[in-house]
Design goal:
Keywords: Membrane, Transmembrane, Transmembrane helix. With 207 residues, the protein is of the alpha+beta class. It is globular, with a radius of gyration of 36 Å.
């Protein structure tokens, strides 16, 4: 007898049992694979749906209408502190402004979530002039990466500029503008030196 290793020989019945078992194992393996795949797919769908449900909106949907975005007097101390700091820094840079007093902040929501359009009313003390001149400035406030308010006077983004113009055209803002304008004219009419100082400032800016 040859000493070479012989391959086992399967009879017909054994072959049938072997093939049946092999097919059964393949079916079980495929079924398990499909089940795992479907389970993973289902979990991914649940995660995706949950993300959609829990994601906060990034737009203030009612910003464009006065009824849903009324002009409000500020009650946020953090925002008030940021605006005060802005005007303190501004008066330190300007040669003509000694101080900004009587600051009152009015706000409307911007389009972007968390943004605010500010209408800041103040009385500016011009150096050497007793009577203060009423003024109103429009600012834009957003929070930086550290969660602190960033007060912006110069807006380079044209889309944000357009939004501010649209919101500022609303009736309640226009009424505030008109009120400050009336106070401004009254102050200039009551003090000739103030009127002359303001005229000089305008001429200096135009040059």
């Amino acid at each position: 007898m040859s000493e070479e290793k012989r391959m086992p020989v399967l009879t017909g019945q054994k072959k049938q049992i072997f093939y049946t078992g092999l097919v059964y194992l393949l079916v079980c393996f495929m079924t398990a694979g499909v089940t795992v795949f479907l389970t993973k797919e289902k979990k991914d769908e649940v995660k995706e749906v949950s993300a959609v449900v829990t994601e906060e909106p990034k737009v203030n949907t009612g910003y464009a209408a006065m009824e849903t975005n009324p002009l409000l007097e500020n009650r946020d101390e953090e925002l008030a502190d940021a605006v005060e700091a802005y005007y303190q820094e501004l008066s330190g840079k300007e040669a003509y402004a000694e101080a900004y007093d009587g600051i009152a902040i009015y706000t409307k929501d911007g389009k972007a979530k968390g943004s605010r359009i500010l209408y800041v009313r103040y009385n500016m003390k011009i150096r050497g002039i007793y009577t203060e001149v009423p003024g109103l400035e429009t600012l834009y406030a957003v929070k930086d990466k550290d969660g602190k308010f960033d007060i912006q006077a110069e807006i380079s983004d044209e889309q944000i500029q357009t939004i501010i113009e649209e919101v500022s055209a609303q009736t309640d803002v226009q009424e505030l503008f008109a009120q400050v304008e009336a106070d401004y004219e009254q102050a200039l009419g009551s003090d000739a030196m103030l009127a002359q100082a303001v005229e000089d400032l305008k001429n200096a800016v135009d040059q």
